[in-house]
Amino acid sequence: MKPFNLEKALAGEPVVTRDGIPVTDFHYFEREKSVFKVCALVDGIVERFTADGEND
Fold first, then answer.
1. What contacts 18, CB < 8 A, 6 or more positions away?
2. Which domain covers residue 44, as residue numbers?
């Protein structure tokens, strides 16, 4: 499995979770004060992730 790459994801490359589930919507909040600056819609549920792809 490829490691998460924020720059490629922001450029529009398809994103999938470690479990192989496609991410259908993806947003990066640069000014978010939390370490979880990425929000993604995964299987109909909003998940939060760090810029390295770790989730809460």
1. 1
2. 6-49
